[in-house]
Write the structure tokens for this entry.
Amino acid sequence: MGGVARLLGFAGLAPAVAATILIALGELDAAIVSVAYALLILSFLGGTWWGFAMHAPRHQAMLAIVAVIPSLVAMALGAGVLMTQGSGWSLVAIGVALILTLAVDRWLVARGFAPAGWMALRIPLSLGLGAVTIVAGALIGQAIGHP
């Protein structure tokens, strides 16, 4: 991936980092930014996979099915946030889901559906956003006295 894609990708971590810093400073309302942004990016990643599916010379239907999974997971995790009233564990679950997307990214690369250099971009971004989201969840859990 080119320098611009890399720069914009890392710039995309800024909202989550800023929200986590605010949470650490006691601004617990920033948790909604962490939740919303992480779920948005999870859905966005599914949209990226959808683009790969639409350009795939083979296995298009299977790839399209895989591509809608992140949006469904995001919806379920968002519902979990509501049901747990924003517990720290709900953010941790979202962070773990972001990290787990790397398995699909690797599969897409191994089968030639994703472009060269895809993992060089996805690994730091998925690990970065996943870790920042998990940290936000831990901070929320600590602040409200339970996970």
About this structure: DSSP finds six helices and no strands in the chain.
